[in-house]
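User: Can you model how coenzyme A sits in this protein?
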Amino acid sequence: VTFTAKELSVSTLQDFEKVAAAQGGCWCMYYHRTGPVKGDPQASRSEANRRDKRKLVADGRSHAIIVYADGEPAGWCQYGRADELPRIDARRTYNDAGGANNVPRLWRITCFFVARRFRRQGVSSFALKSALRSIRNQGGGTVESYPVVSKGMRSAPEWMWFGTPAMFEREGFKMVAALGTSGVLMRRRVRPQAQGATGQTH
Ligand SMILES: CC(C)(COP(=O)(O)OP(=O)(O)OC[C@H]1O[C@@H](n2cnc3c(N)ncnc32)[C@H](O)[C@@H]1OP(=O)(O)O)[C@@H](O)C(=O)NCCC(=O)NCCS
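Assistant: Here's the modeled complex, given as structure tokens:
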């Protein structure tokens, strides 16, 4: 299988939606919101998420790397600037660990999602590499992630959207602090792409 990557954008939105339809109604909106949407029954919440996602993508405020397996959309890695993914700032454990603490040019990697039949083939890991390259091309900075360590959560793929510590260690991330008992805060610096370079490596 050959993997390729594209940015989520107005022109790839339909590929994202094809995979996201199996995701359970989030449309990867959760971390874009500062808090819960109140009062909506599940079905209309899903519709609201889809609509809001389309708007954010059109406005260039929602970023992800979509991975294609032999040309077919297989999954993604959502990333973005800290202010685009503010829900993280509402996590108690994140604040207990020191929070964003005015880190300049802070980026977040919040979600991986892979269509069932493409799982366990490295789609997430490929998406992560591509997201870091993309962050580098957008000026770099500090990138943080929140991978899952809890044994209970790691026994079920549904709870693994933050990825694993090993995925991030392989890309040079270091542990910063525990996030309660379920996850860890990891960070790495990404230097900006040198001028005139091709952007093929990170
Ligand atoms: C978690 C998920 C993104 C992994 O994607 P993937 O492409 O299969 O992952 P990869 O093949 O790149 O493997 C990445 C790592 O995850 C681990 N992993 C993958 N599936 C796993 C599972 N079911 N249980 C435990 N670990 C798993 C791999 O062993 C690898 O670990 P390592 O880095 O420690 O070696 C995928 O299973 C998924 O989309 N799960 C559903 C998430 C979900 O429904 N979330 C709720 C709504 S967002």
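A couple of observations from the model: The chain has six helices and seven strands. The beta strands are 3-7, 63-69, 72-81, 106-114, 141-145, 174-179, 183-190.
User: Helpful, thanks.
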